[in-house]
UniProtKB/TrEMBL annotation, chain A:
<dbReference type="InterPro" id="IPR011862">
    <property type="entry name" value="Phos-bd"/>
</dbReference>
<comment type="subunit">
    <text>The complex is composed of two ATP-binding proteins (PstB), two transmembrane proteins (PstC and PstA) and a solute-binding protein (PstS).</text>
</comment>
<keyword id="KW-0472">Membrane</keyword>
<keyword id="KW-0592">Phosphate transport</keyword>
<dbReference type="InterPro" id="IPR024370">
    <property type="entry name" value="PBP_domain"/>
</dbReference>
<keyword id="KW-0813">Transport</keyword>
<keyword id="KW-1003">Cell membrane</keyword>
UniProtKB/TrEMBL annotation, chain B:
<feature type="transmembrane region" description="Helical">
    <location>
        <begin position="12"/>
        <end position="34"/>
    </location>
</feature>
<dbReference type="InterPro" id="IPR005672">
    <property type="entry name" value="Phosphate_PstA"/>
</dbReference>
<keyword id="KW-0813">Transport</keyword>
<feature type="transmembrane region" description="Helical">
    <location>
        <begin position="107"/>
        <end position="126"/>
    </location>
</feature>
<feature type="transmembrane region" description="Helical">
    <location>
        <begin position="132"/>
        <end position="149"/>
    </location>
</feature>
<keyword id="KW-0812">Transmembrane</keyword>
<dbReference type="InterPro" id="IPR000515">
    <property type="entry name" value="MetI-like"/>
</dbReference>
From TrEMBL, chain C:
<comment type="function">
    <text>Part of the binding-protein-dependent transport system for phosphate; probably responsible for the translocation of the substrate across the membrane.</text>
</comment>
<keyword id="KW-0812">Transmembrane</keyword>
<feature type="transmembrane region" description="Helical">
    <location>
        <begin position="83"/>
        <end position="106"/>
    </location>
</feature>
<feature type="transmembrane region" description="Helical">
    <location>
        <begin position="127"/>
        <end position="148"/>
    </location>
</feature>
<feature type="transmembrane region" description="Helical">
    <location>
        <begin position="210"/>
        <end position="231"/>
    </location>
</feature>
<dbReference type="Pfam" id="PF00528">
    <property type="entry name" value="BPD_transp_1"/>
</dbReference>
<dbReference type="InterPro" id="IPR035906">
    <property type="entry name" value="MetI-like_sf"/>
</dbReference>
Amino acid sequence: MQRSHRGSIIATLVVVLFAGLLVFAYQHRDSGHNSAPITAVGSTALQPLVEAAGEDFQRSNPGTSVTVQGGGSGTGLSQIAQGAVSLGNSDLYAEEKKGIDTKNLVDHRVAVVGIVPIMNQGTGVTNLTQSQLTDIFTGKVKNWKEVGGKDQEIVLVNRAAGSGTRAAFEKWGMNGAHSKEAQEQDSSGMVKSIVKTTPGAISYVAFAYKSNDVTMAKVNGVEPSNENVENGSYPLWSYEHIYTNGKGNAQVQKFLEYMESESFQKKYVEKLGYISMNKMKIDRDLNGHVTLVQKG
Amino acid sequence: MNAKTADKVATGVIYAIAGSVALVLFAMLAFILVRGLPHLSWHFLTSAARSFEAGGGIGIQLFNSFYLLILAMLISFPIALGAAIYLNEYAKKNSLWVSIVRTSIEVMSSLPSVVVGLFGFLIFVVKFKLGFSILSGAIALTIFNLPILTRSIETSLSQIPNLQREAGAALGLSRFETVIHIILPASVPSIVTGVVISAGRVFGEAAALIYTAGQSAPTLDFTDWNPFNMASPLSPFRPAETLAVHIWKINSEGIMPDISEVSAGASAVLIIVVLLFNFSARRLGQLLYKKLTKA
Amino acid sequence: MDLITEKIKKTSLSTKQDRFGKAISILALLFIAAIVVMIFAFVITRGFATFTSNKINVFDFLFGTNWNPSVVDKKTGLPGVGAAPLIIGSLAVTFLAALIATPFAIGTAVFMTEVAKKRGAKIMQPVIELLVGIPSVVYGVIGLTVVVPFVRSIFGGTGLGILSGTIVLCVMILPTITSMTVDTLKAVPRHYRESALAIGATRWQMIYKVILRAATPGILTAIVFGMARAFGEALAVQMVIGNAANMPESLVSPSATLTSVLTMGIGNTVMGSLQNNVLWSLAMILLLMSLVFNILIRWIGSKGELK
């Protein structure tokens, strides 16, 4: 009996001590550092850029915290529409995604992403027109020799249905056609390594994942380069959007201003494989109307 | 073929099968370690990850993994222990509701961890506004861990022969006293083994954490140990990417130039930690067994 | 005298303790049960939304062969929500993995309990435990870097497909089946062995004709248990199966499973939309299947208990 009493006394002491420590810690907490964090959720393609911006922003604005999560454009848009997060990252215009209440959403375009068709090195093809891309991905063309390559079967590797890169590819690369059901991978890294190792494979990745292990196709004879995207001659690209619900609080506005600022666009955007908004000579709206940007 | 040759052939086949299983394991371990070990260094283990430059480490992820594991264990162990004690000591063996609960625990243990993660995301992260945080992650891990742990503790308890319970009853002890003073001490070694092994599984879990503890590892201030500060390593409200999530993330969307090195190194660390858990579990179990049975 | 009767009639300290302990342990169990109920309710309400608010026919969902929820089929005017290819893919990898893993598992278990009792258990026990401990992400990485190229070099194509998934899953469920089989073999009473040997059976005859027969229900339970694990596995399978939601043409053509489609799609769909609801319906199938597996286990267990 005595032994068990000793045990319970020690246990009580430990609990009391622990609770005391917690209270002490709570009273001495650094309240200045605990302002509501900025949470960004969504597109995995945009994630690294926002992460880099967040790290920099926290450094120059002590006391704020920026947390960035992936989860996909769909998650980002639905969370921001519900107001559950402060920023929703998306590869698409919110209007393009079904089921999103776009009424309160404010669009901030922070960067441009170019998309390049990649092929296994043995296909013998280096240039594809948009109609050839459409034929390949809708399954009309099944062999590389039909588009001027070797006699080899075409293996399609798609991105996950609903992913931003796939939506952009189908919209701007395949003139809005839907690609046929084929194998899907949900990440650029996987796509690249599968195309690299599978004879006859074709897929598409963002410019950030360009690699010499695979053949990067010209589209309509235009080299997939930043310059060609900026002047509008290369068609396969999309804006990266950050959406806010309403205008967002002061912190959020400050953060977005920072992301759109000249210094940030210069310092990080190209280094991380995106194309800077400031360099774009053209502007393309939701329906594909292209206008020249007035530099003022 | 007469019975004797059949016996010899069968024995040979069985040896071959067991050998090949062991071979598969060693080949896998060797594969991971050979690829990963050359990238391990003190710097790699302690420095922060970099999102787009080479030379990042896994320091914060490693810390997060352990912290999350400890929290999850603190929450799940008492619950699992209580449930296991009830199932094994109090419950009537053939009652309907016990068998329903038992079935539901088993269904839960074969639940895909993605579903657990999404459940955690929609309920804790969004509904309860816990955000992407260690706390949400720990709760998701608890849900993932509870069925495994309950089962393993229950097995440990059921291995204690009924004689011990009868002896307790004969001495006039209540059932609760028998459990606390006789059954639990006797089963401590195997419970500890079970706990540590399930800790290994929790350590390697990724899918349940992607949407709960999040995929970002903000820099931590390792001089600030006040759990109520955001930058403190102990803060349960900060997002925390763990090692397993990190491996998953860089394999899918990483853009740093040394992805394969970091991935191989991190996988090796993950495997080494799990190996350590397993070996220490056996050693600890044996040690405790010796100590407790000598007295 | 009164004092004593009073003392006896009063609930003693240990009775109170006992009630307290029992209450606490019931509470813990109820807590777990509550979580299970919550998850079930959650998945089922979400999963049923496909049929109630999106008006999809249950049979179209279960037996349709066109899976492409974001595209509306021109012929039927409905989005492609036929989950049959995914269900078949899941069942195929599960059964094939169990088929391959079982002989290895039984062989290893017999090795550990009958053939090389001391040495076998000493070496194989840690091996089995380590196999359980390897995280599924790592299994996926190994599958992608070793198994897939291997399959490709033999059968051509991409190497991604049911066969690769089967091989990876087979290694993943092997330890589960083995360790449960070991337990049932150990539970076969000693006198079975002794009587078999006493009437002049060789060791193999004893194993084959007596022990394995006596342990059959237990082994079946172990296999079903392994299959339940295989059915729910997501990350590793997703990395090696190729994720093409077509009817599987062959073992080496890219296919998809319920879990792989679920993991990939959930982040890219919008909460409350048809594309999202239909994924929760897949999760519901997963849940129901694991319920089926568990009932099966119970049924086998109660049928063939060693008497």
